Amino acid sequence: MRELSLTIIFTCIKTKQMPRQSMLSTPSRKKQKGWYSEQMKAAINTARQKATGYKKAVKMYSVLRSTLKQLVKDPQKSLELLVHIPLRRKPVLPADLEKS
């Protein structure tokens, strides 16, 4: 690790420029849906029936805990609707203002 950081420092001194990206850290991954709909449906079912807790359901079905909590909140919606909801920020402006 020390050798890697020294080589980074020496290359920066030679080129007289700072590195554009940190060479020590791993490249960041874009946020995207990291689960399959069938797995999420099963996790929602087990969490709604209180068969397991959130942590155990997350480990069993390999889904994201925050997304699972968000989708379990509304028990009236069907699983098909919940799984296909777009996961993004809600707009600040109303839809009619954004279109115009």
Task: Assign the CATH class of the domain at 37-83.
Answer: Mainly Alpha
Average pLDDT, all residues: 78
Helix count? 6
Q: Rg to the nearest angstrom?
A: 22 Å
Helix content: 40-55%
What would the principal axes of the Cα set say about the shape? flat
Shape-level CATH architecture of the domain at 37-83: Orthogonal Bundle
In the CATH scheme, what's the topology name of the domain at 37-83?
Arc Repressor Mutant, subunit A
Strand content: under 5%
Order of helices and strands: HHHHHH
Main beta sheet strand tally, sense and closure: none
Question: How many strand segments?
Answer: 0
Distance between the termini: 54 Å
Low-pLDDT residue spans: none
The helix/strand class is mainly alpha
Give the secondary structure arrangement, pairings included.
Elements: H1 2-15, H2 37-48, H3 54-61, H4 65-72, H5 79-83, H6 95-99
Helix pairs in contact: 2-3
Structure description:
The protein contains six helices and no strands. The chain has about 100 residues and is mainly alpha-helical. It has a domain of about 45 residues: Arc Repressor Mutant, subunit A (Orthogonal Bundle), CATH 1.10.10. α2 packs antiparallel against α3. The protein is flat.
Briefly say what this structure is.
This protein is mostly helical and 100 residues long. Helix content is 52%, strand content 0%. It has six helices and no strands.
